[in-house]
Write the structure tokens for this entry.
Amino acid sequence: MLKPVMMALLKLVRDPLITVKRIGLKKVNATVWDTEYELGNWDYLDSEANGKTPVAMLEKYAPGAHILDLGCGTTKNLPLNPASYAHYHGVDISQEAIERARALNRPDASFEVADIVAYRTTEKYDAVLLREVLYYLPSGEVPDLLERIGKILTPGGVLIVQIWNRVKFGMLLKMVRKCSLVVAEEVAEGHAWTVVARKPNVR
Ligand SMILES: C[S@@+](CC[C@H](N)C(=O)[O-])C[C@H]1O[C@@H](n2cnc3c(N)ncnc32)[C@H](O)[C@@H]1O
């Protein structure tokens, strides 16, 4: 009994910011993310190498797609060819990240500041991206989010999930494999993992 409590406490002390983010308080969460972006803590993510696999999966499974990118960040690492998609919509809790994304003037793109846990839309999308974001959500919210994504995907549409460490975040991997979408491809690159899960093509 004592050991699990100690482990939980130690984890809390070791990863205080991740813990704060996972509690899911929108204002606090947004402020922490904005501050981290302003401090340059996430600049290393901006390399296009980080977006290469999701972009390749988009081109393979959803050419010409209406794309929704949840927890999109600055999007500097997403080398989307304008001819390869119909529209791109990025959503992020951080105003700072969204401002940087807007400044890129990506064609056929729109952006929105919102908490993806509470995010609802009546739009339909051919592809939804969850790149390096699931671990920052309260884990109890992830299955519901995946089910909601299933509902906004067009028939045959795909969810693309990117996780930098599939060993550390194996639970998330299991949640994606268990959701109502059908895994079409899994790409392992070192510890990193990208999965493409498709909505069955029935209307
Ligand atoms: C590690 S960054 C990844 C950014 C981008 N997806 C990428 O792969 O480069 C995580 C992003 O998720 C956003 N985020 C975290 N929690 C969120 C939430 N509840 N709603 C919306 N965005 C969130 C953060 O602001 C941040 O931009």
